[in-house]
Amino acid sequence: KLFGGFRKTSDRLGENLTGLLGGGKAALDAATLDEIEEALIASDLGPATAGRIRARLDGELFEKGLDERTLREIVAQEIEKVLAPVAKPLEIEAFPRPQVILVIGVNGSGKTTTIAKLAHMLQEQDYAVMLVAGDTFRAAAIGQLTVWADRIGVPIISGKEGGDAAGLVFEGVKQGTEKGIDVLIVDTAGRLQNKTGLMDELAKIRRVLGRLNPAAPHDVLLVLDATTGQNALSQIEIFKETAGVTGLIMTKLDGTARGGVLVAAAERYGMPVHAIGLGESIDDLKPFDPAEVARAIAG
Ligand code: GDP
């Protein structure tokens, strides 16, 4: 399933590399090394990783020439080295309860779906989960999250469109505490076009949470759409400090040739990646296994 998920990404990497080795085994002259490096960058893997793969190829003696299989093997190994340090499953602490997870991301990134998938994943680990429909700017987001909550059988706190998100969060923590909820997952607005408003609102949510519990929010997850490629990187740039992001979830890795951006993000920001989205259904949020993902990308 995972390998199928990254197929478009590995196909494109293959297309970019094909021909560079002359169809068979090629000796690695500087021009070929340049071409390989460019092909890796064109596959969204990021300049640092591409440079390291080049250096490694340069450093190894391929006297008999390099075939595509060996090249892919080296690419997989180097990708795994980049991904391994950031692969961290979401950890739910025992105290205090409820643990609060804020989920942020621009509209269309897959935020709503990811919240539902995450709730489902935690439910399967026997956590009592509750949702807060804090994206109060979009009636559709409230509606969609409610549909998911009903479908998977988790309680949800929601209000009217245009309502006060921080107030909902307050209510969520209060009810969560009363009901013995383990994890409260809070949706937030994703209007990047009104950045100041968005950041003010997040700050307000944080203030309310901080008053209830100085350790909250325990996680601030940024949901990124892999199909946007390099744009996903600029979103990390925008949100990482202003929103205090603690970890990433990258979605839509199944439908894109730009999955290499996961490697570029890991390389550049070193932020924990908690899970990856590989489809539209509730079971399509997968734990992030760096070895498996590296193989899937390298093909
Ligand atoms: P939001 O606006 O950020 O809340 O985004 P949604 O959760 O509504 O998702 C936008 C679209 O992306 C929906 O059609 C989802 O089904 C789809 N989607 C979300 N995650 C994934 C994923 O991992 N893979 C695929 N193929 N589609 C996804």
TrEMBL record:
Highest taxon in the source lineage: Bacteria
An MF annotation (GO) of this entry: GTP binding
Cell compartments where the protein resides: Cell inner membrane; Cell membrane; Cytoplasm
InterPro entries reported for this sequence: AAA+_ATPase, P-loop_NTPase, Signal_recog_particl_SRP54_hlx, SR_rcpt_FtsY, SRP/SRP_N, SRP54_GTPase_dom, SRP54_N_sf
Keywords attached to this entry: Cell membrane, Cytoplasm, GTP-binding, Hydrolase, Membrane, Nucleotide-binding, Receptor
Catalytic activity: GTP + H2O = GDP + phosphate + H(+)
Membrane topology: Peripheral membrane protein
Record-annotated AAA+ ATPase domain positions: 97-244
Residues given in the record as GTP binding sites: 105-112, 187-191, 251-254
Domain SRP54-type proteins GTP-binding: from-to ranges: 98-299
Main subcellular location of this protein, as a coarse class: membrane
A GO biological-process term: SRP-dependent cotranslational protein targeting to membrane
Gene Ontology CC terms, in alphabetical order: cytoplasm; plasma membrane
EC number(s) stated in the UniProt entry for this protein: 3.6.5.4
Family the UniProt entry places it in: Belongs to the GTP-binding SRP family. FtsY subfamily.
Chain's role: Involved in targeting and insertion of nascent membrane proteins into the cytoplasmic membrane. Acts as a receptor for the complex formed by the signal recognition particle (SRP) and the ribosome-nascent chain (RNC). Interaction with SRP-RNC leads to the transfer of the RNC complex to the Sec translocase for insertion into the membrane, the hydrolysis of GTP by both Ffh and FtsY, and the dissociation of the SRP-FtsY complex into the individual components.
Subunit structure: Part of the signal recognition particle protein translocation system, which is composed of SRP and FtsY. SRP is a ribonucleoprotein composed of Ffh and a 4.5S RNA molecule.
Protein name: Signal recognition particle receptor FtsY
The species this protein was found in: Rhizorhabdus dicambivorans
